Amino acid sequence: MADQYAQTLDGEQPPGPGALRWDELPEGPVLVLLDQRRLPVEEAELVCTDVPALVDAIRTLAVRGAPLLGIAGAYGVALAAARGYDVAEAAALLEGARPTAVNLGHGVRRAAGAYEAAVGRGADGQQAAAAVLAEARQLHREDAEASERMARHGLALLDELLPGGSHRILTHCNTGRLVSGGEGTAFAVALAAHREGRLRKLWVDETRPLLQGARLTAYEAARNGMAYTLLTDSAAGSLFAAGEVDAVLIGADRIAADGSVANKVGSYPLAVLARYHHVPFIVVAPTTTVDPATPDGASIEVEQRSGQEVTELPAPPVPATVTGVTGLPVPRATEAGSGLSVAPVGTQAYNPAFDVTPPELVTAIVTEEGVVSPVTGAGIAELCARSRQVTIS
Known about the structure:
The protein has helices at residues 2-5, 51-59, 66-82, 87-95, 102-120, 125-161, 186-195, 212-223, 236-241, 267-276, 308-311, 377-386; strands at residues 20-25, 28-34, 45-48, 167-171, 199-205, 228-231, 247-250, 254-256, 261-264, 281-284, 290-291, 312-313, 321-323, 329-331, 340-341, 354-357, 364-367, 370-372. The protein has 393 residues and is α/β, with parallel strands linked by helices. The relative contact order is 0.12.
């Protein structure tokens, strides 16, 4: 992999390595992840041989992003089945790894359902494992297809709201290939605009405290040759005031039945700014992110993360390695608590991973099934009714 991606960012570049893949090794099947904690400094792979390793990768954000978590969860169930572990126990561990991201539970339950159905038909362990893997691969394909359709719908919406092209788009966190089986959600729309010559500027929020915008979105934008500029989250207000933002595009980790949107913390302030400055605020997410069982924003469980993510700056990746199942060196992530302190020892930190934007501040929700605008409970219910992936409970 190092040879494939050890190019400079001058000229035309490949879109970057895939975020995960299933691999069959002599020692048994594994799930191989692009370790997003090490980007953009190093493109390193993390090999998961069992579900606890995958759960740790999910919790520490080696793999992240709502759609991709659903895919990873499904492959995790397949991994448990293929290696002869307790599938129900594995599914429970995976589903609880990150509570806000509804796609994770969706992928896990879908894969576990395929396993149970196969066993119910009299399949042996090997046959049931094959059925789960087929289901995970199908989910992976569906997400790639959904990404492509969201990009088309989103670009059409931008052109309708902002005739004339030359869009200046502000985005938050990371919503590209690194979170998807395809080219992403919100980032995929911006990328489609870029390819059509209609993207003037991509404004990239750094996305504190873990800098997913600075580390990951800027990385993807550079690889695709997009015109982009990085800004601190706190600078967004001045950018709106200067009239430099035409639209805000973000992803989502959960969309409630009333249209409330949970996304990376810092999204809600952007929605408030966008409303004040009469700028469209657009959410791009697959229908698997819609959760009809969550009635409203107040019902969304928001993940609270370690205060060390706020009180420390992460240490840069170092070439420390451990031996993987392949016998080759596998990069080891920096441990929590080994970063550079930016606050006095003992400082308490408030660190929610997400915030919730109410539907009245959302101009539109773009999915692979089409656009919901205005965003209302009735509109969300209609979306669910016509989707093959989301059902109303």
